[in-house]
Each structure stands twice: as structure tokens, then as C-alpha cells.
Specification:
Length: 350
């Protein structure tokens, strides 16, 4: 029995060769086309993986929440973008503490956020970089029009302690470049310049060259692992998927039903690009039709079989959620050895 086969299930298993290949391939793409790579660590929440990304040439990292950023800065990473509206006394105090130790940039979509950020900058004794968040089609956060983006940029530039760094959007649908170009033209009239124009998203990553020269920086996260969604989007093939959830068939109550020991606490309840809650590689035509907390209910296709006690690998629908469900990643190396890497920022979502 190999070391990996002795790991108890459910387990989040990373194939190291695939992980490294994914990281290298994307960095090479960014270098070739002239995009700064600022990977999103929300996918893996791992200091070790973030360090690998930086060693390959990433300009810094992206953290979605302060908690992630605190873990990464504690580990010595000193260039962090937090693309999230930060407000409230407690979070602003934490932001100030981070800004004293590292180069931190944040985003805004409302001028009402600026006084609090300015106070954090004063407390830190350092200028705080600010990007204007632009909604170019997602319908989440962000200003909705280029003129609004330009006006907010001008307001940022007028506030002591804040430095206008540029614009940010996610993802970059048709029309995003025109939106950003209009915002850039709007601030040029005021003598301002967008040093950074940041876009992101793994599914369209390989077409990112179309965003040039407007976009200067790209934030991708899932590319480190890939998952069922990025495979369906054409960003990867199944042989690029580095993270799978290893599970065991713990019950065979009916001929066509198999029960795994990995439920919503291991696979998440995120719906996928097709039916079901993941892809069982040992039964690829099967469907994980539902999850309870500790069990996955697998409907087997005709001609497929899973035996009681059999170990299987499940490609998750959404890798970013899965990593946050485990304390550690079991890293499988060539030759059969394993390492265990902590999910350092697990649960650090505030």
C-alpha cells in the first residue's frame, strides 16, 4: 500500500507535478504577453503555494479578505491587494496594522469609504494604494459607469494618505475594455494616470491578451488547481486538475447507488457546470446527485461499478471552496511520497 493510499478519507489531495505545471504555464503566458501576474490566493489559502507563485515571478498576491492578507503578511509576503470594500472601526484598525508591515492596496466603489481608509493610512503612517472598483457586467460591487469611475478616482486623489493607483474589474466581459478606456480618458483630463488596470478570472485567462494594452495586471486563482468549472470553460483539461477529493465507497445500498464518505463538508454544495456535485474519475458517467453533510450519493451509469471500500477521486465543482474545507492539503509527489501542507488561511474569511 502506497503512502497516499494510507491517507484517511475524505482528503484534499494535490498532485504536485500538475500544480507546478499550472503555475509555470500561467506565469510564462503573463511574461510572454506582458501582463503582471497577481494570483488570487483565495483558491488555495496556502502560504507554500503563494510562495511558489511569487518565486515564479508574480508581482504580488490578491487576498479577498483581511484574514487571508494577515496570514500571508505574517508569512513575509509584502505586496498584497485586497479587492474588497473595507469599512468599520475593527477592520480599518486591522488594515492599518497590515499597512505598517507591507505594501497594501484596496478597492473602493463609493466615496463614503474614503474617510475611513484615510484614517487607517494615517494610523499606519504610510500611504495606502486605492483602485476604483468598476462593474463592467458582473452586477456585484463596483461603479456602473466610466464617468463615475473617473469621478471617484479624482476624489481618491484629493484625500491625504490615499494614493490613486488605478482601476479594477472582474471579470472582463465584452465591453469591459471600452469601459476602462473611457475611465482612463476621463481622469487624463485631470492630470491623473492609472498605473494599474487590473482584471481577472480563470475561465477566460488564456484570452487575456485581448485586454492589452488597457489592462496591465491579471488576477487568476483557480488556475493553480483547476476544477470541473474551469475544465468545462475550456481553460484546462482533466489532466490539468491538480486538486481532487479522495473518498471511499462506504455503502452500496442498491445496485445503481454508491455512497461516498465525502459530503458537503468536503465537496461543498456549489453547483457545477453540469449535473451533480463533482466528477468521479473512476466512474466518469456517474452523477453525484445529492450531498448530505458527510455523504455523497452517486448514481452509477449502466456498465459502471464501484465496490464497497473502493477509493475514488472526485474532481470538485469549485476548488476554491473545497480547499477551505480542509485543514491540510495532502501533496502527492512523483515516486509516491507525500507531504502535508497546511491550509494556512482556512476560515480566515473576515
Amino acid at each position: 500500500m502506497t503512502a497516499l493510499e494510507q491517507v484517511e478519507t475524505p482528503a484534499a489531495v494535490v498532485e504536485l507535478a500538475r500544480l507546478d505545471r499550472n503555475l509555470e504555464r500561467w506565469q510564462e503566458h503573463c511574461d510572454r504577453v506582458g501582463l503582471a501576474n497577481r494570483p488570487h490566493v483565495k483558491t488555495h489559502r496556502s502560504v507554500e503555494i503563494a510562495r511558489r507563485q511569487l518565486r515564479l515571478g508574480a508581482t504580488g498576491i490578491t487576498c479577498q479578505k483581511l484574514g487571508e492578507a494577515e496570514v500571508m503578511v505574517d508569512a513575509g509576503i509584502d505586496d498584497v491587494l485586497i479587492p474588497f470594500n473595507l469599512l468599520g472601526a475593527s477592520k480599518l484598525a486591522r488594515l492599518a496594522a497590515l499597512a505598517r508591515r507591507a505594501r497594501i492596496a484596496v478597492t473602493v466603489d463609493d466615496a463614503a469609504l474614503l474617510p475611513g481608509l484615510a484614517e487607517a493610512a494615517v494610523e499606519a503612517g504610510r500611504e495606502l494604494g486605492v483602485l476604483v472598483d468598476c462593474d463592467t457586467g458582473l452586477g456585484r460591487t463596483g461603479v456602473r459607469r466610466p464617468d463615475q469611475a473617473a469621478e471617484l478616482a479624482r476624489q481618491v486623489a484629493r484625500v491625504d494618505g490615499l494614493r490613486f493607483d488605478g482601476f479594477l474589474t472582474f471579470p472582463a466581459p465584452d465591453g469591459a475594455v471600452a469601459f476602462l478606456d473611457a475611465a482612463i480618458a476621463g481622469i487624463a483630463q485631470s492630470g491623473l494616470r492609472a498605473g494599474v488596470v487590473s482584471a481577472g478570472g480563470t475561465p477566460p485567462m488564456w484570452s487575456s491578451e485581448r485586454l492589452l494594452p488597457t489592462v496591465t495586471e491579471y488576477r487568476a486563482g483557480t488556475y493553480a488547481f483547476h476544477d470541473r468549472a474551469t475544465v468545462a470553460a475550456g481553460a484546462a483539461g482533466l489532466d490539468d486538475v491538480a486538486l481532487t477529493v479522495h473518498a471511499t465507497v462506504v455503502s452500496r445500498p442498491e445496485g445503481g447507488l454508491a455512497i461516498l464518505d465525502a459530503g458537503s463538508k468536503a465537496l461543498s454544495s456549489d453547483v457545477g457546470p453540469g449535473d451533480g456535485f463533482g466528477l468521479v474519475l473512476e466512474a466518469p458517467r456517474a452523477r453525484i446527485e445529492r450531498l448530505s453533510e458527510e455523504h455523497a450519493f452517486v448514481e452509477l451509469a449502466e456498465g459502471e461499478a464501484l465496490a464497497l471500500g473502493q477509493r475514488v477521486r472526485v474532481v470538485p465543482n469549485h476548488a476554491c471552496v473545497v480547499a477551505n474545507l480542509f485543514d491540510e492539503l495532502v501533496v502527492a509527489e512523483a515516486g509516491g511520497a507525500i507531504e502535508r501542507w497546511p491550509v494556512d488561511a482556512r476560515g480566515r474569511s473576515a
